[in-house]
Amino acid sequence: MGAVQSFRDMCDSTKNTNVRFSLPAVCVVWQTAMIILFGIFIRYDEESDPHWFEHKKLNNISSDIENDFYFRYPSFQDVHVMIFVGFGFLMTFLKRYSFGGVGFNFLIAAFGLQWALLMQGWFHSLGTDGKITIGIENLINADFCVAGCLIAYGALLGKVSPVQLMVLTLFGITLFAVEEFIILTVIHARDAGGSMVIHTFGGYYGLAISWMLYRPNLDQSSRLQGSVYHSDVFAMIGTLFLWMFWPSFNSAITDHGDGQHRAVINTYLALASTVLTAMAVSSVFQKHGKLDMVHIQNATLAGGVAVGTAAEFMLMPYGALIVGFCCGVLSTLGYIYITPFMEKHMKIQDTCGIHNLHAMPGVIGGIVGAITAAAASESVYGHEGLIKTFDFEEAFKDMVPSKQGGHQAGGLCVALCFGIGGGILVGAILRLPIWGDPADVNCFDDEVYWEVPEDEESIPQILQYNNHMRNKDIADTNFTMEPVGRSRS
Amino acid sequence: MGAVQSFRDMCDSTKNTNVRFSLPAVCVVWQTAMIILFGIFIRYDEESDPHWFEHKKLNNISSDIENDFYFRYPSFQDVHVMIFVGFGFLMTFLKRYSFGGVGFNFLIAAFGLQWALLMQGWFHSLGTDGKITIGIENLINADFCVAGCLIAYGALLGKVSPVQLMVLTLFGITLFAVEEFIILTVIHARDAGGSMVIHTFGGYYGLAISWMLYRPNLDQSSRLQGSVYHSDVFAMIGTLFLWMFWPSFNSAITDHGDGQHRAVINTYLALASTVLTAMAVSSVFQKHGKLDMVHIQNATLAGGVAVGTAAEFMLMPYGALIVGFCCGVLSTLGYIYITPFMEKHMKIQDTCGIHNLHAMPGVIGGIVGAITAAAASESVYGHEGLIKTFDFEEAFKDMVPSKQGGHQAGGLCVALCFGIGGGILVGAILRLPIWGDPADVNCFDDEVYWEVPEDEESIPQILQYNNHMRNKDIADTNFTMEPVGRSRS
Amino acid sequence: MGAVQSFRDMCDSTKNTNVRFSLPAVCVVWQTAMIILFGIFIRYDEESDPHWFEHKKLNNISSDIENDFYFRYPSFQDVHVMIFVGFGFLMTFLKRYSFGGVGFNFLIAAFGLQWALLMQGWFHSLGTDGKITIGIENLINADFCVAGCLIAYGALLGKVSPVQLMVLTLFGITLFAVEEFIILTVIHARDAGGSMVIHTFGGYYGLAISWMLYRPNLDQSSRLQGSVYHSDVFAMIGTLFLWMFWPSFNSAITDHGDGQHRAVINTYLALASTVLTAMAVSSVFQKHGKLDMVHIQNATLAGGVAVGTAAEFMLMPYGALIVGFCCGVLSTLGYIYITPFMEKHMKIQDTCGIHNLHAMPGVIGGIVGAITAAAASESVYGHEGLIKTFDFEEAFKDMVPSKQGGHQAGGLCVALCFGIGGGILVGAILRLPIWGDPADVNCFDDEVYWEVPEDEESIPQILQYNNHMRNKDIADTNFTMEPVGRSRS
């Protein structure tokens, strides 16, 4: 008994969660590196440069409204809301990890988007002068890139330190940019809403890391797993902002005109359909048909993931509804059966259930995309429409839809390989005992990395005190002195 | 005593709130029907079809930016936020019905918008080939149509089952589409922001249903009526998103250019004015001049409703302020006097007070619209402006403003009739004892239809336990085993 | 002892917080004045008037899409969200002042924007016919103007009455409009994102008022200072909506095309950089490296303030990162050192720490703007670009960048003077004992001005009761009768 105890003590003593040196160091070093690299590489593109005036003249552009900014800015802001409020609040559902959910999401997204601008720039926007020029589309792509890492965070929520998250993000963005380059440019797959590039990759990346970081004694913090009433309502803020703005996500970088328009319609319909089947399955599997907030918060979004690749194609409105229908069912079943199964038999602890919300629907999305692409024809798209939608130009001008379908499938495989392989690699790095991750007993607890205010329980006492003070003489009471204002020195 | 008791027991025993069969069945059947009907009827319109390229050439459209998508997409997303976050969070104010407020709102909106695309399509967008073609404007109109049913839900909040809500939505959308066709197309009334079509109809539809479903013993759940501190703050999220995006609501489908521009200005001003008078009346009717969150959450929005019809007309900025001024006063007085009066003497239990926020301001909006239309003149609008604003074209090219005013008033009457008549009809259907509605004692309680997490009270115990664990040897404690992750199997 | 006590009693007895007469009177009188003044002065401009059709023809405008509405409406809605949800929810962090935070923010913003339309109109948009014509840009400017007053409210949060806030707003808007006219028109400084005009002015205006209203015994309400767990999560809603939409804030009124595009990129980058350094400094100054929500909620936004003036200039992407880097550090240090210092030694009680979030970063922004302007050259901007960016036209066509830098510095001084001077003046007015401000012991307490619902503590009792009721015969229980619905009569 004593031996076991001292061994466990030792294990726990290695869990030093003090990040007072490592977190600031990582933040400052990496931010400094960003400044230097941005100074060397990043410039404004011709649409955000004061020479736009001359550019307009040269290219015979009649009005400022044709600046790409006006085609994409509303979608960009919606995507931005999804990244910071959507993902952030979706992760506030745990009873005592809301600060970590929304706060670390904020941290890694803010770092990730800078690194993404560089990585994606080197692969996609590097000019002949060795400079990366950026405009609104690059900002959207950077947000997309970050989404992959935030998805991965979902699997690890509550079990990792902020320093680990920064490392996860650095590697995640790097892997993402390479994978994206291979899928979109080398293989020439289309993936407007990122079913493969973002969701499949991000999902399996997170699951593989979670597998590498398996905690056999995680039940020691089971008292903190699960939600309370208000934290479930907070999570609905995240769910709804993701759900509402998903049409913008899937259409943000599609073709001007009909491309953006069609992607919005398809996504809107797929999501609506998902809500109904997710609710149906949630109800049918509970005693008395009661609905489960876990399913409502997550499975209702699966349709948006699964329609990502095909959103810009001629999926047809009923096709979008069918995709949403199936995903609502499968995703909810995933929460009921697959997540506990993976936990018990596969050593994968998936806090937010990203397998059911991102990984599996992402794969479905890749398959739907491949089928829809293979089935494309000039009779449906028109001659010009087919070329424009699938970008059958330059090196790929001899491409045909059936072959494009194969390329789409190839893209899906690349995303899977990068996700799983990359996750195992990064997971191995994150196992090193230097990152300040919490002990099993302290998982899902904001106390570890945050200054947490006093409990709510003191409120009734305050109110009682309050009423008391109003009714009696206040002069002979001594108050404790405390500095005013938002300082907490 | 025993006889009374057994009678009440019997009544209560008929209240079987188990929706494990009915809810999934309704969701799956109706979603399947949607897929089939969409397959038969719904197609992309020329602006969201890959033939847009040829369409542009044919119609001499110079740039993709003239795709209707770019005129309406930002407004569409704002309206979407109003429907899902605005209405959803406004209904989270009850202390133990936040899940039902935001969750059922989500369910019926997601179903309603699909059915609305079909119903409105049959009336407004049916092509000669028997197909309905949809684009961004149809999505906005579908959201509008759903709003009518969500308003009705406000009157019934906490007292109906999700199955009843699905039935209410199916009939509500159907009635809406017919009513809208009569008002806008047959009578040729204008109603940009839907004061009549949406708010008057939706308001009276909900009130009539509530009257049909009157519960004399609703006081048995009075302990759950009312808010708690945090639920009132949640409801403010709904209020503010409705308030902020109302200019988009009223301008979303008005004419390109000055029409959208003017509708935004009028709505912005009317809403600002309403806030001040709602606060004033709220304060003057309370002891010590304290403000009541019920009024701040609801009455501040009445100006947006009342300016809906006239938002695109030359209401003039001061006119918008006057409308807002009056509605702030009347709506707040409604919460203070009319809602309790209707409850006591008219057997109408209106949980959210939709009479004061939608029904009454909607009627005011219809009247303001009729007056403003009747007062229109070429000197104010210009020759072309008058024709364009009131759509005096084709069959109505001989229309004059004074006559248009009469048509507006006629439209208001139609909205009233459809709301009240439809509500009584649907209310009768919903009285059937087959829908799984809650007993009087269980109203306003999420426990009935939702898996509700453990109470917050356990948090301090968790924290105590937490501190305890940090300070002592953890090895000899036995924890209960529980599956990790978002599964709740 | 008795004498001291009776003196304090007298002081407290002068603190009559009953605003039942004053608040409604102020609201109604001022709203009526607005209606009259709007009737005399405010008209639609040519882009929101039905004569737009003729205006298009006359000015050879080819499409409705070139109406300024489509250039600015998405940004306007984002700014609107920042004003009402961003500022509003950022101020919900106090444990028992969430109603006051979001509610009074709503009140003064709704009043302020009307008065701002008039004040700014008289200075900037007064036509030869004595009418002010308004369009979407005026609405944005009105929201900007209101932001100055909301910033000032941050310093006074919890310590003033709604009537004082209305007075503060009336004078604040007036001072703002004069100051803005001097800085932008007379001095010809550029200030797209309002670092000087909005943040420096608003920050010092609030701090000066707080200094005038110093409360030596504010520690009497120290039990209510600080947050609880959920109120900190609510405040994050405000933080994130401010953070996400700040690019829209800084670009909302910049030049069409490259101007708006560049301002977005610069702001996006500066804010990302700020998050990392704010987190770093927050962690390094706490025991165990724990993060403090006060810093995450506030200091992460400082970069957006500091990049405001230079956002439309050629600050370069790395320049934006540097500005963000410095502001994250300085702002967090401000919360740790400066706010307590000002409280103890300068008699300035700054509830939200606006000095660190607005005043100081605003000054930095003014300096950055002056340097960037002075360093501008034709080689970087191009000939046309330089003229367009700095508006070197008409009376200022002989201006050169170096001189413009001086004008920028001059503008900063004017903002400082108006802020401090105006604050002292208005603070003196607000000291009069007629405004219904709370006693020291009642600060930060919603009870004073709001009907607050029963405490959450009653929920477990409700639940217990609930379960109890389900298990036993309900017939012989007497319930208290209470009106249903949202009425609280």
From TrEMBL, chains A, B, C:
Xref: InterPro entries: Ammonium/urea_transptr (IPR029020), NH4_transpt_AmtB-like_dom (IPR024041), RhesusRHD (IPR002229)
Membrane topology: Multi-pass membrane protein
Subcellular localization, as worded in the UniProt entry: Membrane
Secretion signal span: none
Transmembrane segments: 21-42, 76-94, 101-119, 139-158, 165-187, 193-214, 226-245, 265-284, 296-315, 321-338, 409-430
Key words, A-Z: Membrane, Transmembrane, Transmembrane helix
Gene3D superfamilies per record: Ammonium transporter AmtB like domains
Highest taxon of the lineage: Eukaryota
Sequence ranges assigned to domain Ammonium transporter AmtB-like in this UniProt record: 67-445
This protein's record includes keyword Transmembrane: yes
The UniProt record lists the keyword Zinc: no
Function: Functions as an ammonia transporter. May play a role in the elimination of ammonia in the gill.
Similarity annotation: Belongs to the ammonium transporter (TC 2.A.49) family. Rh subfamily.
Name of this chain's protein: Ammonium transporter Rh type C 1
Lineage: Eukaryota, Metazoa, Chordata, Craniata, Vertebrata
